[in-house]
Design goal:
Radius of gyration: 14 Å
Distance between the termini: 17 Å
Strand order of the largest sheet: 1-2-3-4
Shape: globular
Number of helices: 0
Number of strands: 12
Order of helices and strands: EEEEEEEEEEEE
Structural class: mainly beta
Strand content: over 45%
Largest sheet: 4 strands, antiparallel
Length: 137
């Protein structure tokens, strides 16, 4: 579960084993967007970029990270590279003067990966030696 936006645009985003990511308007207490994938997956975690415009969710199987635009609901990209279920995700904080946004992903495969989301590339893989269950910038 993540909070995104602020003021009149405050929303709560959640992911589920039913294969959906749902965005709820916190003023109207209403689901305004349901994000899905082309084929059914079970989601285990999610993250929102600092702007709240990009939502990522990690899957149990296949071991992918799905990326959507919250505004349009469109699936933008799929990041692949882990060899086990995705356990955790976190975006780097906003940095003034840069358009780069980094995403950290931890997996049951024992690795922590750093992704450049807008370039669809893994820039670093760190071996942990056992399941990675939490990440934070």
């Amino acid at each position: 579960v993540k909070f995104v936006g602020q003021g009149q645009g405050l929303a709560l985003v959640s992911s589920s084993l039913d294969g959906t990511v749902r965005a709820h308007d916190m003023l109207r207490y209403k689901n305004f967007r349901t994000l899905t994938t082309p084929t059914p997956v079970q989601f285990t975690c999610l993250a929102a970029d600092p702007s709240g415009e990009v939502i990522c969710a990690g899957a149990m199987d296949p071991f992918n990270i799905y990326i959507w635009s919250l505004q349009t609901g469109r699936l933008l990209d799929v990041l692949a590279g882990h060899e086990g279920p995705i356990a955790c995700l976190d975006f780097s904080p906003a940095t003034t003067g840069t358009s780069s946004s980094y995403l950290a992903s931890g997996s049951w495969d024992g690795t922590l990966k750093i992704w450049e989301v807008y370039k669809n590339s893994c820039i670093e893989t760190m071996e942990h030696g056992c399941d990675v269950l939490a990440v934070a910038f």
